[in-house]
Amino acid sequence: MRLSNTITTITGGGSDGWDLFIKARKMISEGHDITELTIGEHDIKTDTRILEAMHTAALGGATGYAMVPGIDDLRNAVATRLAARTGVPTTLDNVLITAGGQAALFAAFRAALDEGDTALYINPYYATYPGTIRSVGGVPKAVTAEADNGFLPTFEALDAAAAGAKALLINSPNNPTGAVYGRDTLEAIAAVAIKHDLIVISDEVYDTQVWEGEHISIRSLEGMNERTFVVGSMSKSHAMTGSRVGWLVGPDEAMSHVLNLLTNTNYGVAGFTQRAALFALGLGEAFEDEIGAPFQRRRALAQKALEGQNAIRLSQPSGAMYLMLDIRATGLSGDDFADKLLMERHIAVMPGESFGDAAAGHVRIAMTIPDAPFEAAIKEIAAFAANLA
């Protein structure tokens, strides 16, 4: 079968960054006891009240085709939520419901790029970012955010890369680094976007998980609302990863065209999961804080466990459910450290190199197991690194 160049080059001809995760899962299937600190999957399940709302909706008949843009009640709820959080007037015409944040990301890039257009993204990056750009025929171009600058992008780095680009993808709070972009950083990004006439795609799926500072949507900055798509999701904020409910927010004229794409791709999101999402949003900010609380607590546990040692340096995370550990003092790459840790201590972490060369010499820890085994794993990783150093 002769396949398209687009489909065969999504990973850029190399690994998609998940080799160690796959290796760890294979060891688990073979009966090994592995402590998994790899992916951003909550250790709690979706709240039973949300599942009951989903069940009730399904039994009530919400099992047929749902409206492709999403049910109006949910779109209105998302619009109200964003308007309250950002101060930007938002209506249901600005909101489309998608099959999770990843589908929203794909739709945004399909809207922003023509074949051969360049899209910038920040390195380190979530593993699907360059592949999503390639999947719509775009050309991904990484802009390095240095570890010594807290993994925050600078105006100078972005400006130097932006000539000829069409779009820029940002993510705050950030996966994998935990960086939260403050106003100064966002204003620098906005200045570059306006100077070079870039469409900004802002992945804000961790907006409820901020431990230091505040979440600011770049959409709220002067001159940015009409050039910004925002990606959101129920996955991280409400522990609904498998429900696949997300949204894309943007200017209403742009969204009318994105709707045509959604009509010709997944043709809507299941009505009963949308009803469950509507119920979940109605639980309010206190519930969202409850979902995020374990990660803030485990962040503090890790900070304490890593005090007084020199083999690992914690890149202080301001948000999200991850830690980035600088392990360069061990003399190993992130790949080699993670592989050795898995084979010798049966602890699975993600090599920093999985998220781009700017994270080389680091490993990413997902804070997604209960407190006691998490704290024990951090201490074990620190001891392992100390032995190597």
The main pleated sheet reads as: 7 strands, mixed
**Name of the top-level CATH class of the largest domain:** Alpha Beta
How helical, in percent, are the residues? 40-55%
Radius of gyration: 21 Å
Give the averaged pLDDT, no decimals: 96
Keywords: Aminotransferase, Pyridoxal phosphate, Pyruvate, Transferase
GO biological process, one term: amino acid metabolic process
GO molecular function, one term: L-aspartate:2-oxoglutarate aminotransferase activity
Organism: Lentibacter algarum
Description:
One of its GO terms (molecular function) is L-aspartate:2-oxoglutarate aminotransferase activity. Belongs to the class-I pyridoxal-phosphate-dependent aminotransferase family. This is Aminotransferase. With 389 residues, this protein is α/β, with parallel strands linked by helices. It folds into 2 domains: 15-45 and 286-388, Aspartate Aminotransferase, domain 1 (Alpha-Beta Complex), CATH 3.90.1150; 64-282, Type I PLP-dependent aspartate aminotransferase-like (Major domain) (Aspartate Aminotransferase, domain 2, 3-Layer(aba) Sandwich). It has 13 helices and 12 strands. It has a 7-stranded mixed sheet, sandwiched between helices. A 5-stranded mixed sheet has the order 1-11-12-10-9. A hairpin with a 6-residue loop joins strand 9 and strand 10 (322-326). It is globular. The mean pLDDT is 96.
